[in-house]
Please model this.
Amino acid sequence: MTMHDAMGWLRETNRQAAELLDAALSAGPAGDTRACGQAAYGAALVFVRRFLEAAERIRGGGDLVELVARAAAADPYFGQVRGAAQLLASAASGDAPADCEQIVDAVKEIRLLSGERAGTALGFKKDSPEHGPPLSDYVVHSTTVERAASIFAQGALYSFAECVRRGLLSGEPPGVKHLLDPRRCTECVIFGSSDPVHYAGEKVANAHRKGWIDEGLEEDYQPSVRLFFPASELKSLPGYQDDGCHILMVRDMVSLEHLAFAVFPTAGAQEAALRTVADEGRRSTLGCRRLIAPAECCSDPRSYVRGTNALARHLIQAQATEEERGR
Model:
């Protein structure tokens, strides 16, 4: 399944659920939890049925709780959304109290998981062959130049919720605000692949800068700072979470001690980030792990990702050669 096929499947799924999702969202501000629950329940039915069509190639019948149980038999990750399905069923029938924020978050959980796992069932692979073996063991966190300076000053990547608790950020993250991510995602630092196909990291970084999701990046694109981490190290952390949707997540924070290298769009951005590091030893260590993107690739997101991936690939191979010489 190609990226084009996956996006077509997702668009059709969203088209089928659009009216119900709009109804759920419009009922929220009015405080009509019953209407919100009924509309969200209907939308969740669409998402789970579409997953079952993708996974089992047949149409799914039954109520939402039954369908999620059946989906869990086909894909164990659906065990994680049994509670969301039960909440929506109760909210739709009026049997149990739930506020509209809980209802919308529950349908987000089911929507996210159904879309991601359907893509997997249909054979869509997030990791492109263009990554190559040297990059396949690394994950990336993309951030704005301004946030990178704060990250270096703090010595760690913090989740959005942790940043809010520490007074580093405020407001709502764009992903939650625009019905993309459940609220639990704000408690995690989220990492992606090196992504030369649809460069999601650049979209996320620009969304945080602008406060809205910018899919095209055709206007006012600003290249991100790309932070590369060894996936195996992050998976060994106590906060590591596997939700079946994201490439890699770690709850609350990830220390920059795990940083393999950082790619900055300009030398000035790199110098500004390093200046924020108070400890001289740590500044020296981080300084050895930074790369500067070629100026000619910084105006286009795809060129930027491919150009910075090439820099990263070269550094990984150089480090492997040095290790071989040292043996």
